[in-house]
Amino acid sequence: MGQHVYLFGDGKADGTAQMRELLGGKGANLAEMARLGIPVPPGFTVTTEVCRYYHGHGGRYPAGLEEEVRAGIAHLEALTGRRFGDRRNPLLVSVRSGAPASMPGMMDTILNLGLTDAAVEGLAAQTSSRFARDAYRRLLAMYGSVVLGVKDEGEAGVDPFDAAMEELKAERGVDSDLDLTADDLAELIARYKALIARAGKVFPQDPWEQLWGAIGAVMRSWNNERAREYRRLNRIPDTLGTGVNVQAMVFGNLSANSGTGVMFTRDPATGENRLYGEYLLNAQGEDVVAGIRTPQPIAKAAKSDPSQVSLEEAMPKVYQELLRIRDRLERHYRDMQDIEFTIEEGKLYILQTRSGKRTGFAAVRIAVEMAEEGLITEDEAILRINPAEQLAQLLQPIFDPTEKANVKVIGKGLPAGPGAASGRMALTADRVVKLAEGGDPVVLVRHETSPDDIKGMAVAQGILTARGGLTSHAAVVARQIGKVAVVGCEALHIDYKAGQVTVGGKTIKEGDWISIDGTTGEVMAGKIPTVPSEVIQVLIERTLPPEKAPIYQLYAKLMAWADQRRRLGVRANADKPDQAAVALAFGAEGIGLCRTEHMFFGEGRIPYVQQAIVGTNPQEREQALRHLGAMQAEDFEGILRVMDGKPVIIRLLDPPMHEFLPQEEKDILALAKRFGVDPAELRARIESLHEFNPMLGHRGCRLGITHPDLYDMQVEAIFRAAAKLVREGLHPKPQVMVPLVGHVNEMRAVRERVDRIAREVMDEERIEIDYKVGTMVEVPRAALTADEIAEAAEFFSFGTNDLTQMTFGYSRDDAGKFIREYLERKILPEDPFETIDRAGVGELMKIAVEKGRSARPDISLGICGEHGGESHSVHFCHEIGLDYVSASPFRVPIARLAAAQAALAR
Amino acid sequence: MGQHVYLFGDGKADGTAQMRELLGGKGANLAEMARLGIPVPPGFTVTTEVCRYYHGHGGRYPAGLEEEVRAGIAHLEALTGRRFGDRRNPLLVSVRSGAPASMPGMMDTILNLGLTDAAVEGLAAQTSSRFARDAYRRLLAMYGSVVLGVKDEGEAGVDPFDAAMEELKAERGVDSDLDLTADDLAELIARYKALIARAGKVFPQDPWEQLWGAIGAVMRSWNNERAREYRRLNRIPDTLGTGVNVQAMVFGNLSANSGTGVMFTRDPATGENRLYGEYLLNAQGEDVVAGIRTPQPIAKAAKSDPSQVSLEEAMPKVYQELLRIRDRLERHYRDMQDIEFTIEEGKLYILQTRSGKRTGFAAVRIAVEMAEEGLITEDEAILRINPAEQLAQLLQPIFDPTEKANVKVIGKGLPAGPGAASGRMALTADRVVKLAEGGDPVVLVRHETSPDDIKGMAVAQGILTARGGLTSHAAVVARQIGKVAVVGCEALHIDYKAGQVTVGGKTIKEGDWISIDGTTGEVMAGKIPTVPSEVIQVLIERTLPPEKAPIYQLYAKLMAWADQRRRLGVRANADKPDQAAVALAFGAEGIGLCRTEHMFFGEGRIPYVQQAIVGTNPQEREQALRHLGAMQAEDFEGILRVMDGKPVIIRLLDPPMHEFLPQEEKDILALAKRFGVDPAELRARIESLHEFNPMLGHRGCRLGITHPDLYDMQVEAIFRAAAKLVREGLHPKPQVMVPLVGHVNEMRAVRERVDRIAREVMDEERIEIDYKVGTMVEVPRAALTADEIAEAAEFFSFGTNDLTQMTFGYSRDDAGKFIREYLERKILPEDPFETIDRAGVGELMKIAVEKGRSARPDISLGICGEHGGESHSVHFCHEIGLDYVSASPFRVPIARLAAAQAALAR
Fold it and tell me: Fewest beta carbons less than 10 Å away: which of A253, A725, A731, B829?
């Protein structure tokens, strides 16, 4: 280990912005700003290496640190002319965390450190008694809770120092702490000390002891619970550690000529290129964040009310300097900056600069405009947008923000389908359909959804479930059909019988309005108006001309840049013509997965499906199959027509037969009556189809091989539909996909029938159809023997949902029980159903790509699992050389952007 | 393609014994015998290549074949002085199949070919009217059914030609066809012709047309149903094809000075080194095989009854020549031979020689004795024994002699397949299959068996026939597939219609129990308990001194030779001390898998297990765990004591918790009452444990990680048990195995606890224990990331049962529904749960071996799935470099032999 402490101040610094890993973001930027001549209070940074050492050595510090910290304090003393611990002219410092990755508010901070019973008098002499005592009571409270760990004894969650403050304010009959006098604060200091003493702790009167206590506390806060959770959610490695920044205090609360504020170099909500920020006079930074007083705008133009006083008006010179600094920092960092500043007696200090968090809208606008300004390249603009979190926002309808602010959140679940939905509540799919007939939007609320609910889900505006995770049936279907969804809202109590739901103490009846925000997971009672996104209005609804849609224009520019750069093709998973049309509008270059079984659940079809499965009369069975065939031919015609000239991969029937049959006694009786069969016989037949592990059972091509008539019907329907279009002069490109192939002989057996039926139809219709036959790669054995299978398959599509289930041995339906715990305990670094597991599932994919191409160099390789629309997985697909990804229609733009980013990544 | 037809005869031949692939076994050996100067009737062989061409080209023959066949017939004419189709001196030929792999009786044969209405008169003039007409009626019947496909119209399963014969015999009031006169045979010929005409067919009067018809029929018979089934059972590739052997006829039925027989160079039942065989005077070969007349012994010493006439007595010169040929052929082929011969007017002809099928007893004895005689090497002796089918017979139980002494022997036949079988009686193959579904063993009883019965014979425990000798179909097949068999029990009266059998005055109905002793030939009514084999009595029960156990002696010699040669270690899967003791006696070098959950189901333990799982009172739960821990420590102590000094791999709890809980309402109520909990609560808890796909659910280390107290209890029990033994001066070697690991972090998490508990116990007891911690490799991801996992695991044990389930995506509980069909349709070449699937599962194993060793060069690698005791899989384990296989105790000898064979295989 080298240097442990990096100094900055007075236009010089040991560190630079590039040293983020070592110094943390805050420390590196403070050093950089010092070098740029930006006025930052002098200070020093203890490196993240020290933090790692500390955690790796049972809370001990590396040799030499103490000397370096002493030298750092001496450096501050030299630059400020004050002395640490001095009675008359004490040097006060702040001690702040600062990790390589931004973790705002997750770790601890101590301000005004260096004050003691003696020093507070000196500070009082220099400033005022009230100011000095206020600073001291703040130090006591922060140090008491953060370093000494003084916790509340009574009511849970209430900080005892806050409680003591509230008590005193009540005794004095004042509302604001600003109304407490210097004497009141002396009393508060006494009470704070008593609180600390009661907890068996001692507040150190030695400033060095204070300093080491604070440094240790900040380092320990790297591992507090909320920091760990934040890192897990944001995929930040636990191994980084935090830097500790010790800086000379400057006081925004010293006088009316002082203040503190936050400034964004562009609007973080809209991205507009204007200074955006707020400040408070006579206040410390924490006051702005805590929202105790309402801040004022910085720019005069931003005033929303004439009574406000902008900084531009109050301190024109400081404002001008801020403008210069804004320009300087944005140009220097080449990104929108989030800047904290303090004004002490009219002098401006910058305390922090960092890339500003922004909405998706702002992210796109800033990136595109900065590229057009020449500040960044188009490549950089593309790389700056998070596809799933930022770009996706441009596509979602949103609640009218002002309306939503007035409504109480009564429950919270997992945000599974972004966007906003308000509708009348329905507890069954049938009820959705009935309620929708009234013309109002409907929100379907269920414990969990099943394939039986698809019809209702398709009609509903939004879906809310009490159970299930982000890969539950409800979540997967919602994303695919572009529905707003909140899943796993465990506070939800559903009483199907009474037709009502209780949540957060509120009871909602069927037909009442309910609102869910699929971007935040929030559930609200009542109706909240929404607006569709501008991109949707232009591309899908065609209700808005592009030239009147500035956000669409930004989107279109970004997408055009992305398309120029990506190598991966992007297709969509769509089962119906309308879904395909949406996908096309979003730029899909084909259909990567059309699930034929979803069509089976269509209006009025299930009886024919059931007859085909359990019918005993061969003629009736055949007739049912003919019926289904005719309907499927229409389905296929529709989707092939929409996607004319583009490949459409149609997967043959995949689920086990029992999914199409009733399980309830009364439904079995009804079915038996309809088919005129013995109920006991029908029940026995249904029971014989029961499986212990349906996931590993008789489905996919296993069914197609043992019961070939269903597949034959589907295949004929595909080619009849294509033939009709060919005769119309169109160019359909159907590609038949065989599910669940694990052995080349399965592929051969099905393919032989497909080719034969295709030939028969083409001969009969006297035309040729441009078709292919390929397979899903979703069984590990298919990947391992991809060379053999490629001999018989013209394309592979990785079905990574099932491949993940089988490679891990996790049933998606059951694994929720332990996966959550595995993620919390870091047994799994991430949920493999969300992001492709590179080491295991990814390894199988690599093997399949290599073997598949070795046997058939021109084989087409893609992915149609949920991962196809997830950025990290798209990167992986690019890396291993797939030809395309296929995502649900609303994820097509995400996939296009992610594919471009993958191509740009080194 | 080169030469299509290979000639032999007169001490010369185109082919050799090495040309088995091209000429088939029969053709190659006929050529070889001709070269050796053994008297074989001259002939020629059409190659298997022609058969393959025929099937690949829609039944056409390759160019040039016709000329070569004509030349072949000319060769026969030259050597015999007869002419094909001649009226006065006709050349008659046999047309027989002969595949590279032995498929006895599976394909078709035509004899006496070349006879026509005209030629039969010429033959009559040379021999007798009766003989000529008998030959002609045989040709008509064979040709009619085999080539022309004339089938019965009435009663199923009865050959119409047989029926016509029976009818005529009844009309004439005779019992045997030998009693039919020449005139009767003329009448029969007329009736046969009428039968053929009624079927719309014509028997060709052109011998060339007959010949081509017969050649085509033999080639087509390669693909008949029973041949395909036989190949499937015996893993013979469908692509081989059969040769066709056309040979000059010789007649064993020409006179009383003629005959036919079958000879084994050693006893095929016991392996004893003596000529063994049967013959019939004045008969054709098919009469011996069909078992219509019971044959006489060849050697005088083999007479079981003074009324018999041995060949040694009847034709001493021929007998002497047979002895010379026996010696010549066995020394030449260096294996026990099965020789068919015919005597025509006192002249001996050899029609076929091949390696003789033999029982497991005979196989071991012959191999060991030939090695001791110096005829073969010890390596060859080892390679000659099929471990699963032959060696395993030495371990099969025999009837309990005291029990058997109380049972009356009601019939006696020839001991054709040693061993003891008690089972429910079935009179048809279909009935065997149906009865076997009930779970009880089944004994098939038939007049005689035919290839159509193979499926039933494969399922049956034992086979009993009323007719036929030791070389009959039933005897040959039974020996080959290792079934207990008694044949030729003439006292047996079978009434197929009534579904019953009468023997020795006792009537037994289908479904009743019957017992047969294949070592003595005895038949008994009812069920008789069995006792262990000689090897078991010596090794396990120690009730028989080795010196009094000749079969054990052979076994021990063979095993000693095998152990000198194998590289693979052999361990056993055993859960209890008594099982471990058996394994040890069979030569196990350790325990490869001790399943702790089996112990959980032990007497009186389940309540504690249930309490530990669903108990709500923490103290009671802990107490239950302590109880279980104490009991498990005893379990482990027992098994570690038995296996002292040898590794014992103990797998931590694997099944999901719901397996230990009741599902029935009344059991739930009882449990709730016992624990004093609310039944509704308990029911809810049990329901919450329900899984859609338990195979892929919350079990194995997933449970160990989320509920660590069960694993902690088991681990402590292991080390407490080991510590006790160490203090006694023993050397226990416990190896803790973590199940279902898919991610290295799972391994790390469990291992950390194991190591900690081990340390605590060792410190507390002040001893050191030689232990290891490793994992099952049963999840595909574990194999794919074996390098990571090996960092934390000291050994891998391939759990190929689960690995196969997940790699194929087959649930063993459900896959029966389609796997059977897949095997029948050759979608799967073999059942992957029986034999390791090399291309898929095997590929994963190879990856794991390579990656595991790369990360930890001294890692110990083994297998503990069912495959560990299956020969083909043991070969594979040897090839990929595993360190050991682990098999169930009774399969340990099989694994030892298979491991030696693998080491000897090039």
Answer: A731
